[in-house]
Amino acid sequence: MEAKTTLARRQPAVQGDFMRKMLTNAGCLLCGILVSRGAVLGSLAPFGASFAAAVPRKYLLSSLLGTAFGYVLLKPSDSFRYLAVVAAIGGLRWLLGDLDKVTKSKVFAPLVAFVPIFATGVSLLFVSTSTLTTFADCVTEAVIAGAAAYFISTALHLAGDNRSFEVFSQQETASVVMSGCILILAFGSIAWQNISLGRIIAMLVILLCSRYGSVTGGAISGISTGAIFSIASRENGYICGGFAFGGLMAGLFSQLGKLGCAIAFVISNGVMCLAFGSQFGTPSGVLVESLAASAVFMVLPKEVGNVISPVFSSDKNTSLGEALRKNIVMRLDFASKAVGNVKNDVSKVSEKMKKLYSPTFEAVCEGTRNEVCETCGLKMYCYEHKGGVTRDDFARLEEYLESNGTIGERDVEKSFVKNCCKKGEIARSMNANYREYQSALEAQQRITDVRSVVAGQFSGIGDILHDLADEFRNTMRCDNESAQRIISALTSLGAIVEECICLVSNGGRMSVELTLSNKSEKLSKGEVMREISRCCGRRFDLPTISREGNRIRIAMCEMPVFDVEIGSDQHTADNGKLCGDCINYFNDGFGKTYALVCDGMGTGGRAAVDGNMATSVMTRLLRAGLSADSCLQIVNSALMVKSEDESLSTVDVTSVDLYTGKTTFKKAGAPVTFVKKNGRVTVREMPSLPAGILNGIKFSTDTVNLTTGDMIVMVSDGVITGDDKWLEKLIRTWNEGSTQDLAKAVVDEAVKRRKAEREDDVTAVAIRITDNGR
């Protein structure tokens, strides 16, 4: 049965891979047809060859077919040469396909495009029916083919990298832009009454880049599209100036909104065309194209900017900012190590001082000798002639004192080998000194406990500094422009923004942290999300809001890939009012969801205090951005100093990375966790000590990669009644119903099975990974 189920699960995955492969090949076929239609210098068409030379090998066949078909459609009478070029490119790539060092070189695609175009051009240069008339045209076409192949191969490589636009280098961004312009040029030949669809699309792209990429986006898009369309025909040289100047002016007026951007472009482009293009009779056509592009631009939704804005986001990694970041990382690293060394030094010195100055029973005997024996007439006899016997006599008194706490005259008489004339005085003096000895030992133990907690705090502080260093190290840059736009937008809504930081990680994901005054106007989470998404040109998730003192902290990140559905249920032992199990789950604002289950020792009020304290401290510190391991040290120390009585709590933390699905389990004395992945249930058991017992405890850690439909079930020890097979079966067969229903079903069944046993608090938390639908 399980084999059939596994086969049934594999079939949709195989079908999905097949469909993706078919769609990708169809896309390559279509792109081959389109780029082949892009002409330069009036009649030359090198871009199809460039595409065929640049496309990945696994999609080569469909690309060659599309390119050949496009050349036949473009110029049926002159397609023989380009079909020969396509065949030559296919042959070269097939022959050299096994030479990885050659094919992975950046010059491979440009050379494969350049050589066939140049060779066939030179061969047909003197044929009367050829479209090539000069050697210069032959060289120009071959160079354009090679350059285009480089741009297209770079853009296709970037498409498979799963990196965001904002982490592209300037060269990579230029390659993406030029590849887009080549694709747009394919529509240039579609025209009516000298009004070109390709130029309308190019103007629309310029307007979008100007609006959402400011001056940088307008200038780059204007120059790129202008250069491509200028070489399309010998009579279109004026287009480069019109597009470039129009893009620059539209970017300068982008702060005035869409309307200001469109008016600036139409006027600037029109002036350039009137000045330099009137001799070709094109001004009226250019005006119609500009107006058509502006009309489409005005009706496009704002969400289009989410894709375009990151492409032209300026790099904030100035030399000063990067040096400052590295300096902070270095200092935090050294500070964390220094604090850790302080802990070690304190521990070593304490151990040596303990050996030197710890109270001993010998000190008790010494005190009695000074108080009683010093004035005795037999002192010389007892300590000079019978010194060894006297010391043994006193040593034997330690057993009586440890057993009874005090000694009497008869105990002295039994312990002493030789007769003593001051047995009563010795007993009284020994009792008094022994009480002082016991008090000194208790005081030393308290000092040791406090010292242990303080040493644990040193360790916790060192971990916190190390976490901060890692966070700064993994942060690629700070987007100050987006931060300023956020401040302006929220201020206009009545918020008093004290600090705003927009950080972009190495993976290209942006996170935003805000600090507001508590006197700010109350804003809903939806309002904050919409405004920040608009200001940054990205789609953000709902924010996490917390309060510390008189300030409000807001943390949010880009919309993740996954979401979670969480349900929980509890049963209190003996149907009491206070439950020793405490649960909480929340999003930290940086793309992770945490679920916590903390079980205080025992049941009732004392257990409830310990469990709630552990959960409260862990939640507060995790929300502040600290790692779970650092938080555990603080929780452990807090429980140890909370009261003189013994306090302990298990700590069970599950964190789900909503971008990758990586799930981390961390346990300190907590019971097992159940994971349902691909229909199979596994048990995650990680032995460890609870918090509050010993200093320096650590989590037991395990990880698993989950995806949509997978589930996690966390339980307290009240659920586990010995045999947990019933629980595995319940989770495995649970295919319908909410996570809340599952958690309740687990608790209800656990309560039934505990009837014959000791009552205990019962808690279950069920988590299902879902698709965020972004």
Automatic annotation (TrEMBL):
Entry keywords, A to Z: Hydrolase, Membrane, Transmembrane, Transmembrane helix
GO molecular function, one term: protein serine/threonine phosphatase activity
Any Pfam family: SpoIIE_N
InterPro entries (alphabetical): Bact_Sigma-Reg (IPR052016), PPM-type-like_dom_sf (IPR036457), PPM-type_phosphatase-like_dom (IPR001932), SpoIIE_N (IPR045768)
Keyword Hydrolase part of the UniProt annotation: yes
Sequence ranges assigned to domain PPM-type phosphatase in this UniProt record: 563-769
Domain of life: Bacteria
Record carries keyword Hydrolase: yes
Enzyme Commission number: 3.1.3.16
TM annotation in the entry: 79-96, 108-127, 173-192, 204-230
UniProt name for this protein: Stage II sporulation protein E
Species name: Ruminococcus bromii
